[in-house]
């Protein structure tokens, strides 16, 4: 009897089968990173169903999923999710923009570096979370407090990596650009900034992780909405499944943000040898 795959291979025009194998390989490579999380969820579910993990201690993934579906049905989860997303993006936009511009200025100008870098490095060594009591005194528990903390958290990774990227551009490329008669703007736009982009993207990815970490803490301490508030509110009523749900959503949001940054990195750095094979 002829198998389905053999029939398909015979019916396919020349060159079709290699393409099918290539797609299957790509699909396997895409699924491979999710193998370990899937196994962990499976073990977690088995431990919950066999009674080795109680619902009060750590509810099974199926119970967490049920809680999520219930909260989506009431609209509560999407409301808190949108509030947290808005806070995170606003903080990233404010803090990331300032850090990028200051990193460029200090990377390109020795005078600007001498004027501001020492102060920035002193502030960088102050843990952002230690400022929470002071920030609450300044802004109360309104949106300004969360925006300030998230902006501060994302500022330093982007600043340091932008500064480092500008300063470590290959000087031979700069000299080559000058020998081709490039003016300052062309030299910056076509040589310096592209050369600094790999380091800038590293800073962005690191900042995205800190963004969610800081937002979690800010929302659990001083907020009336958001995923952190949802988790703390659920804790008061011993709703462990909702607490775990909020934590898992934070993890998924962090992974999603990192994946988007890596996709943008690959699209932007196609010319770079290190990113051609990805």
UniProtKB/TrEMBL annotation:
The chain crosses the membrane at residues 31-48, 89-111, 123-141, 147-166, 187-204, 237-257. InterPro entries: MetI-like, MetI-like_sf. GO terms for biological process: alkanesulfonate transmembrane transport. Its main location: membrane. Residues 77-261 form the ABC transmembrane type-1 domain. It is found in: Cell membrane. Belongs to the binding-protein-dependent transport system permease family. This is ABC transporter permease. It comes from Elstera cyanobacteriorum.
């Amino acid at each position: 009897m002829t198998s389905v795959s053999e029939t398909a291979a015979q019916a396919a025009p020349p060159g079709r089968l290699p393409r099918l194998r290539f797609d299957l390989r790509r699909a396997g490579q895409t699924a491979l990173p999710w193998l370990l999380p899937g196994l962990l969820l499976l073990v977690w579910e088995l431990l919950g169903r066999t009674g080795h993990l109680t619902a009060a201690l750590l509810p099974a993934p199926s119970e967490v999923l049920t809680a999520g579906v219930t909260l989506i049905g009431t609209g509560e989860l999407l409301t808190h999710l949108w509030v947290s997303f808005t806070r995170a993006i606003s903080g990233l936009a404010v803090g990331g923009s300032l850090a990028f511009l200051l990193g460029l200025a200090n990377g390109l100008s020795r005078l600007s570096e001498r004027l501001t870098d020492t102060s920035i490095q002193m502030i960088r060594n102050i843990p952002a979370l230690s400022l929470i009591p002071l920030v609450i005194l300044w802004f109360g528990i309104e949106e300004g407090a969360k925006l300030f903390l998230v902006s501060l958290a994302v500022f330093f990774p982007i600043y340091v990596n932008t500064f480092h990227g500008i300063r470590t551009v290959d000087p031979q490329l700069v000299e080559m650009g000058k020998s081709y008669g490039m003016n300052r703007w062309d030299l910056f736009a076509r040589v310096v900034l592209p050369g600094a982009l790999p380091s800038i993207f590293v800073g962005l990815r690191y900042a995205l992780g800190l963004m969610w970490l800081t937002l979690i803490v800010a929302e659990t301490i001083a907020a009336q909405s958001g995923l952190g508030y949802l988790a703390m509110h659920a804790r008061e009523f011993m709703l462990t499944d909702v607490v775990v749900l909020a934590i898992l959503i934070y993890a998924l949001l962090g992974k999603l943000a990192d994946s988007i940054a890596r996709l943008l990195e690959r699209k932007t750095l196609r010319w770079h040898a290190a990113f051609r094979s990805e």
